[in-house]
Design goal:
InterPro entries: DYW_dom (IPR032867), E_motif (IPR046848), PPR_At4g14850-like_plant (IPR046960), PPR_rpt (IPR002885), TPR-like_helical_dom_sf (IPR011990)
GO molecular function: RNA binding; zinc ion binding
Organism: Trema orientale
Radius of gyration: 43 Å
Strand content: under 5%
Shape: elongated
Strand order of the largest sheet: 2-1-3-4-5-6
Family: Belongs to the PPR family. PCMP-H subfamily.
Pfam family, one: E_motif
């Protein structure tokens, strides 16, 4: 285009440059002695001349040549009587007649050229227009005002805006008609901003707009959503008296509707002296775009009362409103109206029907509409592909795209965007790459819409390198391009790049929108960057976007994952509409940050508000139930999963197995696990660790062997369960074998947890030399977990010296941990070292550390009852004490002797016995025996480890009462039945 511009500025361009423009003929441009306007016209004529010379047989050019040749023919046909006579009089008459004829023929010639140029503009034939322009230049015709306007119009309407502007600049006098023609050309091509700029230039040029100019300017404002300039044009229309013009009024309605100013659009429409289908369609389209189907229906009824003729465009606007609101019933009524007025098979309306049925979830009906179109064009095919993609029928969308290509329909950029969206949702990168190849073959690889879809497709499929390459190939990326690129940096591997891209986008002057903030907040969630997340939050407030529910959901998720539950709850409470995604985010956040009670509470509140859970919500809430061991809630969630049809989802099934395993009924966990069609590593890990936690080490190791036999590869969590089983079974050598195979066979690097498990295995066996050797040879610096395992082993074997060393390390690493002081004190007390006991307790007090009080809880008739040791606050405490005395007498009758050595306090023997009798788990046991159903298993939960005496009591009571008792302490599940425990007294 730049070359064309400079060529037009040269009267006699250099031969080399002329050769580029005129590849077929070398044209001689004659020298004219003409008016200044003709010289200006000559100065940018090369492109027009090149077209006429390279198309010598063009019909319009032939007509133009015949128009030029008419004056000579007119002169030759001067009547004989005018040529008779002698002398100067006869010659003078002939000259006067010749001048008059030339003048008359010149006007006719200019008129014919103007008509032909208008025809070219209507047909969009740029080459024909250039050919006629070339004839004008070649024969030295001096354009009049009409021909100038026709030249501007043909270039503007045929898409050559640069030359159209140059023609306007060369005009001796520019009027409102020529300016309007130029602005219309830009607006017709979708260049709204340029149209606004040209309108402003026209005003500076002193040209007063007419009704057509105002209408064109308003159309430009609608294209670029320039509400401010549109209001100025509104005032101009009122000022010059064109507000009552039907076209101006309709375009004002359209402008306000597209800018979301529906009250202004209403006011303009109902103030118009005359209304037509176009103005009503503009208003209806505005409300439809907002999704206000009720207002659309109300206006439609009013329009029908005014007897406005129903058209396919109005029906299309109404259908758009139904599609936005998902109002199928109204959509079907409109479909019947379309049949009634005979435009059911119109392709334009059929696409709207397709979209309506698609948005309402009826892909079959959409397909039926498509099948009734006689010759569907690319728009109808694209609408069907979009419909199938929106209904998650991605394979069907791919099949339709294939059929479209087979019958020879050339895909456009909308088609490619739709099928790329389907490829993105299919997560089929190979299919997406094949579509990319089709894009190249169709020469649409630089189309911005297609490029943005390609970036999204590569980003969502994890191929960020390819997505970046597409992005870098875009000449002028827009905000959608940046958002598409940013959407690929959510996952853990590359989330750190998200903030960099966001900052670069700001540097390049782009204003972030809702989708930008959602993407960058998701990056902050993955990257756990709370500081940046708070800055982004502030940025959303500054841009008045914090009230958008989608951003609210992203904020809840970000704060929840960065363990700021107070901020997450605050963001959650400020949301006006909380959908399932939002509820799932807050429930998951609570479950993952150890606030399981809050997670269950939020879940209950969600159900009260009528929001039904999906598989992700159920899995998150089940994890919370597993954490706080609320079996009844877990069973209710199990029934919800069955009713909701989520029992095929692997996440829900794994969460159910984990919940039952951690809440007590390991048999239920095993039943669900055995019913799995396919078992992955996570589900196997849940069962292996569940068996270990329930003291069923043999079954844990058996499950591990079955897992390997089925070909499922273990991970680091699998071996934690295996080591735990070996520890509780006392299988030292087998534990060492598994530890070595984990490193050498499965190539899993041991973590600090694996080393702690091995130290526990060796320490329980009293092999302290090997424990010390393992700690010294660890490639990881010993942490608190390691020394906790050492201290536990020292207590079991009474190793005082090693216990002191382990405790010193723990005092350095975690001085606030109460269990270190308690364990060390108990080790000293067991050896009778009371001075050392007092010293430890004094040191504990000086550090401000307090012992966590022992507590137990039991669920009876859906209500949780909590008990603390020596606590008399429970309303049934008197009955509980009486029940404990009764149990004590029955246990004594079968040989029970209290293990007072477990009471590591310097008090009398009687005080020790009384203290043991009122431990929290015994209070919970007595209450459950009195108020729970006899056939029901008693489930007791305890925050600390059970003492040896309470363990013996539970075994005896299970035999005396013939009741099954399950106690979950801080380390293990103990299943007491018929006087025995599942841990085999080894915990």
């Amino acid at each position: 285009m730049a070359c064309e511009f400079f060529a037009l500025k040269m009267i006699c361009p250099p031969p080399g440059f002329r050769g580029l423009l005129l590849p077929i003929f070398h044209i001689h441009i004659p020298t004219w002695n003409s008016t200044p306007s003709l010289v200006r016209l000559k100065s940018w004529s090369s492109a027009a001349l090149s077209v006429i010379e390279s198309n010598p047989r063009n019909d319009l050019a032939d007509e133009a040549r015949s128009s030029v040749s008419q004056p000579r023919e007119g002169l030759n046909r001067v009547p004989g009587r005018l040529r008779t006579g002698t002398g100067r009089s006869s010659e003078g008459n002939e000259n006067r007649i010749r001048k008059r004829t030339v003048k008359l023929c010149s006007h006719e010639r200019l008129r014919r050229f103007s008509v032909m140029l208008r025809t070219c503009a209507l047909k969009g034939s740029l080459n024909d227009g250039k050919a006629i322009h070339g004839q004008v230049i070649k024969y030295g015709i001096d354009p009049d005002a009409h021909l100038w306007v026709s030249l501007v119009n043909v270039y503007a309407k045929c898409g050559d805006r640069v030359i159209a502007r140059q023609v306007l600049d060369e005009m001796p006098e520019r009027d409102v008609v020529s300016w309007t023609a130029l602005i219309q050309g830009f607006v017709a091509e979708g260049y709204g901003i340029d149209g606004v700029v040209l309108f402003s230039e026209m005003k500076k040029d002193g040209i007063r707009p007419n009704e057509f100019t105002l209408a064109t300017g308003l159309k430009a404002c609608s294209l670029c959503l320039n509400l401010g300039f549109g209001k100025l044009l509104h005032s101009e229309a009122i000022k010059v008296g064109y507000f009552s013009d039907l076209f101006v009024g309709s375009l004002l309605v359209d402008l306000y509707a597209k800018c979301g100013e529906m009250e202004l659009a209403d006011s303009v429409l109902f103030c118009m002296p005359e209304q037509n289908a176009i103005s009503w369609n503009a208003l209806l389209s505005g409300y439809a775009e907002k999704g206000d189907s009720q207002e659309v229906l109300k206006l439609f009824c009013k329009m029908r009362q005014l007897e406005i003729k129903l058209s396919k465009f109005i029906l299309s606007a109404l259908l758009k409103g139904c599609a936005k609101a998902g109002n199928l019933r109204q959509g079907q009524v409109l479909h019947s109206l379309a049949i009634k007025i005979g435009c059911e098979f119109d392709e334009f309306l059929s696409c709207s029907l397709l979209d309506m049925y698609s948005k309402c979830g009826l892909a079959t009906d959409a397909l039926n509409v498509f099948m009734k179109i006689k010759n569907p064009d690319v728009v109808a095919w694209s609408a069907l592909i979009t419909c199938l993609g929106q209904q998650k029928q991605w394979q069907e969308a791919a099949h339709v795209f294939h059929l479209m290509r087979c019958i020879g329909i050339q895909a456009n950029h909308f088609t490619f965007s739709s099928i790329l969206s389907a490829a993105t949702d299919m997560r089929d990168i190979r299919y997406g790459e094949s579509i990319h190849a089709c894009v190249w073959k169709s020469a649409l690889q630089y189309n911005l819409t297609v490029s943005n879809s390609l970036i999204t497709m590569y980003a969502k499929n994890g191929c960020m390198h390819d997505g970046i390459r597409v992005f870098e190939a875009i000449k002028d990326p827009d905000l959608v391009s940046w958002n598409a690129l940013l959407s690929g940096f959510h996952n853990y591997e590359n989330c750190y790049l998200g903030p960099r891209i966001f900052r670069q986008m700001l540097v390049e002057g782009f204003k972030p929108n809702m989708y930008t903030f959602i993407s960058i907040l998701r990056s902050c969630s993955s990257f756990l960057d709370l500081g940046l997340g708070k800055q982004i939050h502030a940025h959303t407030i500054k841009n008045s976007l914090d009230g958008i529910d989608f951003i609210g959901t992203a904020l809840v998720d970000m704060y929840a994952k960065t363990r700021c539950l107070e901020d997450a709850s605050l963001a959650f409470s400020r949301m006006t509409k909380r959908d399932l995604v939002t509820w799932t985010a807050i429930i998951t956040g609570c479950a993952q940050t150890g606030q399981a009670e809050k997670a269950v509470s939020f879940f209950s509140q969600m159900l009260k508000e009528g929001v039904r859970p999906n598989e992700f919500t159920l899995a998150s809430c089940l994890n919370a139930c597993a954490h706080i061991a609320t079996l009844e809630n877990g069973r209710q969630l199990h029934s919800m999963a069955i009713k909701g049809g989520h029992m095929e989802d692997l996440f829900v099934i794994s969460a159910l197995v984990d919940t039952y395993a951690k809440c007590g009924p390991i048999e239920d966990a095993e039943t669900i696990f055995e019913g799995l069609v396919s078992r992955d590593t996570v589900s196997w890990n849940t069962m292996i660790c569940g068996y270990s936690q329930h003291g069923q080490g043999e079954r844990a190791l058996e499950a591990f062997r079955k897992m390997l036999d089925e070909g499922t590869m273990p991970d680091d969590v699998t071996f934690i369960g295996v080591f735990s089983a070996c520890s509780h079974l006392g299988l030292v050598e087998e534990g060492i074998v598994h530890f070595n195979s984990m490193i050498k066979v499965f190539e899993i690097n041991p973590t600090i947890t694996h080393f702690a498990c091995m130290i526990d295995i060796l320490g329980r066996a009293g092999r302290f030399d090997e424990v010390e050797s393992l700690i010294e040879n660890m490639k990881i610096a010993p942490r608190a977990m390691i020394w906790e395992a050492v201290l536990g082993a020292c207590k079991m074997h009474g190793n005082v010296e090693y216990a002191k060393r382990a405790a010193e390390k723990l005092f350095e690493l975690k001085p606030e941990m109460d269990s270190t002081y308690i364990l060390l004190s108990n080790i000293f007390a067991a050896k009778g070292l009371w001075d050392d006991v007092r010293h430890v307790r004094k040191f504990m007090s000086s550090q401000g550390v307090k012992k966590e009080p022992g507590s137990s809880w039991v669920v009876v008739d859906g209500q949780v009852h909590v008990f603390s040791s020596q606590d008399g606050s429970h309303p049934k405490i008197r009955e509980i004490h009486l029940k404990l005395e009764e149990l004590g007498q029955r246990m004594e009758s079968v040989g029970y002797i209290p293990k007072t050595e477990n009471m590591l306090h310097k008090i009398t023997e009687r005080e020790k016995v009384e203290h043991l009798q009122h431990h929290s788990e015994r209070l919970a046991l007595a209450f459950a025996l009195m108020y729970s159903k006899p056939v029901k298993t008693i489930q007791i939960y305890k925050n600390l480890r059970s003492c040896g005496d309470c363990h013996d009591v539970m075994k005896l009571v299970s035999g005396i009462t013939n009741r099954e008792i399950v106690v979950r302490d801080s380390k293990l599940f103990h299943h007491f039945k018929a006087g025995t425990c599942s841990c085999k007294d080894f915990w």
